[in-house]
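Please fill in the sequence for the structure shown.

STRUCTURE ENCODING:
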């Protein structure tokens, strides 16, 4: 049908009205492409999350969908909310992602413009002198010509969808950059929360080290008094001094870590963090986060922006096959002008001055040394590579969620056990201290109990941090955020 209409256009090119009519019909028929129908690949992961001792039962059936929870609801701590808002406004990585969207959008508009004719207004004037021996009249003549035209230059009738395929590819590239921005934004929110929690934990560890140093100094002073009174030995005195110096080492170490945590937080936020927004300790109020449920793998994973981005790129490569296939068929280029012409400038818009030209050009590939076939092969292989990357992205996402769920299923047990261990070591330290003061045991038993208690307290802080970090990780790997655009 399209080829017959093309022949009609070429055969009746002198009838301008009919020519325009047939051209419009061809434009309407050019909506088809030669790209293969897109079918989403099957997810190469199990239909359910892993089960076993490390996982909670029924996690796929309870709780809200993480992708539908706005970050303002998930991270309920006011200071943390303000920090996240600052990061969304100032972080440079997110700013680059937004600029990439603007760039991709402009590129899409450039490519989309090829779907429409480019109409230019042209004005032209010329003058030339013809000597007498060259003129037909035997007299020298001066010839003037003036024209005012509207011109369509090199417009391709997209009969086989080459331009539309390229336009579809540009659109999918643009959509992929939008998903990349969402991915960066979710990662940024999670990174701010993780850095905030790490700083809170290290500040609590520093406070614990200082408190422990105070207790050790009290014990040391008591032991020195006993030594001066001849009750304690020099060994007891030096054993009491050992944890004092060890605590000073810990204070110096955690002071450095707190400063580094503050620097890391300022970097990810993108601006110096006000002191009032910094956490004091890893308080229990920070547990005010929603407990997310992952849903089914096919539902949870396909909502992640990185998975959507991979699929957008796959669709773009699929569309590019249509452009490569269209290269085997004729290309029809239209060049036309319509306007007025006159030998006098004042006669340009008088009756009878209409001028027009229509010059369609048909290019049919005959011999290209295999170029078009090779381009098609490249396009098909690019599509296959994109399929593999899409499937790999799903597999990686499945593993990340499964790991986070395994951590989630055991962290509460670990935290409870660590709390019980800390309570037991605190009681052991109290009893050993009482026995030493009564002269029943040496100071070595007190020293051992002190070390166990300090280690247990530090591990308890780590367990609390791990539980909160796990919630942040689940927020990230489940594509959390909801309406997170600022």
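FILLED IN BY: designer on duty
SEQUENCE:
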């Amino acid at each position: 049908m399209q080829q017959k209409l093309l022949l009609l256009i070429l055969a009746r090119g002198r009838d301008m009205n009919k020519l325009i009519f047939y051209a419009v019909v061809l434009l309407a028929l050019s909506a088809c492409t030669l790209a293969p129908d897109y079918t989403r690949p099957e997810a190469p992961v199990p239909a359910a999350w892993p089960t076993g001792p490390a996982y909670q039962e029924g996690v796929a059936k309870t709780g809200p969908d993480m992708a539908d929870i706005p970050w303002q609801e998930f991270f309920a701590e006011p200071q943390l909310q303000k920090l996240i808002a600052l990061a969304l406004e100032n972080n440079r990585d997110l700013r680059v992602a937004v600029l990439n969207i603007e760039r991709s959008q402009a590129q899409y508009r450039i490519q989309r413009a090829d779907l429409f004719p480019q109409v230019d207004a042209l004005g032209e004037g010329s003058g030339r002198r013809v000597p007498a021996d060259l003129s037909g009249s035997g007299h020298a003549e001066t010839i003037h010509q003036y024209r005012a035209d509207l011109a369509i230059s090199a417009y391709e009738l997209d009969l086989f969808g080459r331009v539309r395929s390229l336009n579809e590819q540009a659109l999918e590239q643009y959509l992929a950059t939008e998903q990349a921005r969402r991915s960066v934004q979710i990662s940024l929110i999670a990174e701010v929360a993780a850095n905030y929690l790490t700083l809170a934990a290290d500040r609590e560890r520093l406070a614990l080290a200082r408190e422990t140093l105070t207790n050790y100094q009290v014990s040391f002073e008591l032991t020195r008094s006993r030594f001066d009174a001849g009750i304690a030995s020099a060994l007891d005195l030096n054993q009491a001094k050992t944890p004092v110096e060890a605590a000073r080492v810990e204070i110096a170490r955690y002071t450095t870590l707190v400063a580094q945590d503050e620097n890391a937080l300022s970097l990810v936020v993108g601006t110096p963090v006000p002191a009032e927004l910094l956490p004091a300790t890893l308080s229990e109020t920070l547990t005010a986060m929603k407990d997310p449920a992952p849903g089914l793998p096919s539902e949870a994973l396909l909502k992640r922006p990185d998975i959507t981005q991979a699929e957008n790129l796959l669709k773009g490569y699929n569309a590019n096959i249509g452009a490569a296939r269209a290269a085997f068929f004729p290309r029809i280029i239209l060049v036309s002008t319509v306007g007025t012409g006159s030998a006098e400038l004042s006669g340009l818009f008088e009756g009878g001055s209409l001028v027009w030209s229509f010059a369609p050009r048909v290019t049919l590939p005959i011999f290209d040394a295999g170029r078009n076939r090779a381009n098609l092969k490249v396009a098909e292989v690019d599509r296959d590579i994109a399929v593999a990357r899409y499937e790999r992205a799903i597999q990686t996402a499945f593993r990340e969620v499964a790991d986070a769920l395994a951590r989630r299923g055991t962290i509460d047990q670990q935290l409870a056990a660590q709390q019980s261990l800390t309570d037991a070591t605190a009681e052991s330290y109290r009893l050993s201290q009482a026995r030493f003061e009564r002269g029943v045991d040496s100071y070595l038993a007190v020293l051992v109990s002190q070390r166990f208690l300090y280690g247990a307290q530090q591990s308890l802080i780590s367990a609390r941090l791990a539980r909160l970090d796990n919630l942040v990780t689940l927020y990230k790997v489940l594509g959390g955020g909801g309406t997170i655009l600022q």
